[in-house]
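Example record

One chain of 119 residues, shown exactly as stored in the release files.
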Amino acid sequence: QVQLVESGGGLVQPGGSLRLSCAASGSIFSTSVMGWYRQAPGKQRELVATVTRSRSTNYADSVKGRFTISRDNAKNTVYLQMNSLKPEDTAVYYCNANRVIPGALENYWGQGTRVTVSS
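Predicted structure tokens for this chain:
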């Protein structure tokens, strides 16, 4: 059974920083693309950043230069370092793991961690 457990959310002032962590159990981590998504109130869930097994990264334009995604394959953990936070970054952040296996796409989500950027 695969579980993704996020941590590190909270309340931060504009311009501040937070680091989110997502610990993965099960065997999926090493063969998955890991990602962070977010969903703000009244909006659809959107991609924030992804990182492949070889550590290639991809970012939404809105977070480029401010957020950094990384993974530690030895710890089965993916991180999202968020700097220069803005009120519009307020959302529930979700960890995602997905991989293609013969005949199927496996896709898993964490329970989410809330980030609030406010003075």
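Notes: The chain has a mean pLDDT of 95.
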